[in-house]
Amino acid sequence: MEKIKVLIVDDEQTITQFLMLGLQNEGYIVESAADGMQAIAKAEKFEPHLIILDVMMPGMDGFEVCRMLKKKGRKLSIIMLTARDQVDDRIRGLNDGADDYLVKPFSFEELLARMQARLRNQFPEVGDSLQAGPLRIDDRRKETYLEEEVLKLSPTEYELLKYLVMNQDIVLSKALILDKVWGYSFNGEENIVEVYIRSLREKLHDKDRKLIRTIRGAGYRLDVR
C-alpha cells in the first residue's frame, strides 16, 4: 500500500507537534512547515497527498500558499485551518482552491473524518488497501485476507488487526491500543486487549506468536519480516 503523506503548515509549534503526533499514530507519513515559503518548498520535495494549511501566518498567508500550490496542477487536497469564523474567509479559501475548511479550535476526530473524506474522494487508489506480509486488508469492503484465505473477524478484531497492520514493526502498548481501537471513553480493563490478541492469533494460525509478538513490559508488535 502507498502510505498517505500529510504536510502540516502552521507557525504555532504546539499545534504542529500535536497534529504530527496524532497523525503519525494513525499511520500517516507526516512532515511540517512553519511558513508559506517553506511550505511550497516542502510540497515540491515531499509531494503530500494532503496539506493541513493554517491561514494566519507571518509573511505569505495560507490563501496565497493555497493559490500557488493549486496552480501547479498536481493532484492535492488542502484543508485550511483558521481562528477566523467569518463566512467571507471561508468562501475566499474555497475560491482559492481549498477543498475543506476547519475553524480553530477543532477536535482531532473531526479533522480525521474530514481528511478521510477528502482522501477517499481525490485518491481512491490509495488508503483503502493495507498490506503487511501475508496480510491484506480491504478497508472499503471491510475484508481481511491471510494469503488467499478470507478471515472471519468481529468488528473489534477487524479494527485491532487494522491498527496493528497500519503500525507494523512498531511496538504498541495496551493503553495506546485501547485508545485507538476501543476509544478514549472505554472504561474497561486493559486485559481486554490480551483477549482479542489471543483470538486474532488463533484466526491467523499464529500459535508460535511469530506474527503478533508480545514485547514483555511494552506491548505488542506485528512482525511480518
TrEMBL record:
Transmembrane segments: none annotated. PROSITE patterns: OMPR_PHOB, RESPONSE_REGULATORY. Residues 5-119 form the Response regulatory domain. GO terms for cellular component: cytosol; protein-DNA complex. It comes from Terribacillus aidingensis. One of its GO terms (biological process) is regulation of DNA-templated transcription. This is Two component transcriptional regulator, winged helix family. The lineage of its organism: Bacteria, Bacillati, Bacillota, Bacilli, Bacillales. One of its GO terms (molecular function) is transcription cis-regulatory region binding. The modification 4-aspartylphosphate is found at D54. InterPro entries: CheY-like_superfamily, OmpR/PhoB-type_DNA-bd, Sig_transdc_resp-reg_receiver, WalR-like, WH-like_DNA-bd_sf. Keywords: DNA-binding, Phosphoprotein, Transcription, Transcription regulation, Two-component regulatory system. It comes from the Bacteria. Residues 127-224 form the OmpR/PhoB-type domain. It holds the Pfam family Response_reg. Residues 127-224 bind DNA.
